[in-house]
Amino acid sequence: MEKEKNKKVKIKEYLEQIRSSLTSQADPEKAEAMASYMRDQFPFYGLRAAERRKILRKYMRQENRPGYTQLETVIKKLWQLPEREFQYFAQELILKYQNEYTEDIISLFEYMITHKSWWDTVDHIAKKLVGEYFKIFPHKRDQKIKSWLDSDNIWLQRTALLFQLGYKEETDAQLLFDIIEELKEIDEFFIQKAIGWALREYSKTEPIAVVKFANTHQLSTLSEREALKVVRKNK
């Protein structure tokens, strides 16, 4: 494990191979449609998730990917490249290192959340990366969540709302409710939508608790509608 952690690859060469693989399979027509769907926030190569993963699979393999000590450098370089597929690859690459996470990797997650921020990356990072991180390092959770809530950055705040999406019966309901209570007055679509989404997901595990919370707290119309979708459907 230590040998793998300290393994070195030629970063410039690794990134150039990824770029070349994506460029060779680019679809300009799909790229335009994908950029439009994302409100023209980012350019694309025009590769759907399954296509992209197939093309870049070899760069995920243990024998080809960077060592853990190179990970931050590689991720930040990928994050700075223009096409959105680079960021999708970067956030999926990090999943390969879960067994090697150290406490300080949360700073890298924060970098990814606060740079080139949009729902397509932030939601993945919240659930897949941050959610797992707090399971591994639970003592880091409360202090970090507080700093995000105090940050005035809607993407860090959205992450605080969504990191428990996959927790199901392990959800800390009181924490979730406290976070919602703190953020529910913010007039921002991505916050209000996330409140509803977080509650809706938890309603699949504890519908009574979610209904009670919705009935006793003044939520926005959007948040309440999203929160109670599953409950109302199952009536």
In short, what is this structure?
With 235 residues, the protein is an all-alpha fold.
Mind explaining what this structure looks like?
It comes from Halanaerobium saccharolyticum. This is DNA-7-methylguanine glycosylase. InterPro entries: ARM-type_fold (IPR016024), DNA_alkylation (IPR014825). This protein is mainly α and 235 residues long. The chain has 2 domains: 1-100, Leucine-rich Repeat Variant, CATH 1.25.10.90; 139-235, Leucine-rich Repeat Variant (Alpha Horseshoe). The chain is built from 15 helices and no strands. The protein is globular.
Which secondary structure elements does this structure contain, and how are they paired or packed?
Blueprint: H1 2-5, H2 11-24, H3 28-37, H4 49-56, H5 71-80, H6 84-95, H7 105-114, H8 119-136, H9 141-149, H10 154-162, H11 173-183, H12 189-203, H13 207-216, H14 221-227, H15 229-233
